[in-house]
Design goal:
The chain has a single domain, classed as Rossmann fold, CATH 3.40.50.620. It has 6 helices and 5 strands, in the order E-H-E-H-E-H-E-H-E-H-H. The longest helix has 18 residues, at 92-109. The chain starts with a strand and ends with a helix. By secondary structure, the protein is of the alpha/beta class. Strands 1-2-3 form a 3-stranded parallel beta sheet, with helices on both faces. Strands 4-5 form a two-stranded parallel ribbon. It binds 4'-phosphopantetheine. Residues 7-9, 36, 72-73, 101, 104-105 line the site of 4'-phosphopantetheine.
């Protein structure tokens, strides 16, 4: 059985992430979307909430499950007996950022990274840009599943009242 891990912060999970999940899930028997927790970084969404929102978004994809991990990513793959990471690429900037990590992960644990190109229509979509636009009052509805959009806007509405 072929299994791959699609790791990320997913704060929040966007339509660009969903596109990569769909493409990877069509090519592997199982795909694990792993929310990697950075203990030094306070996200917009809590980790449990990110997981719940991704589970809801991917509920129609039976070979996709969602998990979490804190620490070195290759340790997660070794623990799970998985040897493949999937990453999405939007541009050469992503490529330059990803190549050293892919090489490091291969050297550390013989973990292979496979890159899937995004659809050009999602090339500008990133969690950080979505958060910035949303915080400044821009409309981020086109970039998020409806339930994720609702949650992000509700959190930001709460923040603005403070
Ligand atoms: O969505 P992001 O923030 O671009 O995801 C980056 C992530 C979490 C996949 C990457 O930072 C990572 O793999 N972190 C886990 C810690 C680790 O293994 N670091 C060494 C990478 S070679």
């Amino acid at each position: 059985m072929t299994t791959a891990v699609f790791p990320g912060s997913f704060d929040p999970f966007t339509i660009g992430h969903r596109y990569i999940v769909e493409r990877a899930a069509a090519r592997f028997d199982q795909l694990v979307v792993t929310v990697v927790v950075n203990p030094n970084k306070h996200g917009l969404l809590g980790v449990d909430e990110r997981i719940a929102l991704i589970r809801e978004d991917c509920a129609d994809l039976p070979n996709v499950r969602v998990d979490r991990w804190t620490g070195l990513l290759v340790d997660y793959l070794t623990n799970e007996g998985i040897d493949t990471i999937v990453k999405g690429l939007r541009s050469g900037v992503d490529f330059d950022y990803e190549v050293p990590m892919a090489q490091m992960n291969r050297e550390l644990a013989d973990v292979e990274t496979m890159f899937l190109l995004t659809d050009p229509k999602y090339a500008h979509v990133s969690s950080s840009l979505v958060k910035e636009v949303a915080k400044l009052g821009g409309d981020v509805k086109p970039f998020l599943a409806p339930h994720i959009y609702q949650r992000v806007t509700a959190i930001l509405a709460g923040e603005r009242q403070v």
